[in-house]
Specification:
CATH topology: Arc Repressor Mutant, subunit A
Strand content: 5-15%
Radius of gyration: 19 Å
Structural class: mainly alpha
Strand order of the largest sheet: 1-3-2
Order of helices and strands: HHEHHEEHHH
Number of domains: 1
CATH class: Mainly Alpha
Number of strands: 3
């Protein structure tokens, strides 16, 4: 049964309004910061993988997927494309050949080392519209939303 917007409760209206604003803001900011990544011929997912490897070192695909909030199937395709470009390499472990570790190549290291400062500057520029305390509060609220599933499982 479909409800008419005029029959939404105040709680439903508030939640829908907050969600819509959150999604629009995220899409808007991502679109603008994504231009910096695209200028280096990187998708947001490719940048996320390179950034994770740059800051965390070699990781298995499952850990990369968790870190950038993508499915392992999607990560495989993105890593395939990065590997074709010579930016990452896969290495099977001797103990368990099913376990594959992803490493940055020298070319990948150079690319992300050059791109990351520009992306960081774009992110800082996007966020500077908010006061420091507002940025902290936004971060706190986003964390609460992001961890909701974990909290529900504990209760």
């Amino acid at each position: 049964m479909n409800k008419s917007p005029s029959t939404y409760t105040d709680s439903e209206k508030r939640a829908l309004n907050a969600y819509t604003k959150l999604m629009r803001a995220a899409e808007s900011v991502t679109g603008r910061t994504g231009r910096t990544m695209a200028a280096s011929d990187l998708t947001i997912s490719q940048f996320g993988i390179l950034e994770a490897l740059f800051h965390k070192g070699p990781l298995c695909q499952r850990d990369i997927a968790k870190k950038i909030l993508k499915s392992t199937g999607n990560i495989t395709m993105v890593i395939d494309n990065l590997e074709r470009r010579g930016l990452v390499r896969r290495e099977r472990t001797a103990e368990d050949r099913r376990y594959i570790i992803i490493h940055l190549t020298n070319e990948g290291q150079q690319l992300i080392a050059g791109v990351f400062p520009r992306v960081l500057a774009a992110i800082v520029e996007e966020m500077c519209i908010l006061e420091e305390t507002e940025q902290d509060e936004l971060g706190r609220l986003c964390r609460v939303l992001g961890l909701r599933e974990r909290r529900s499982k504990r209760n």
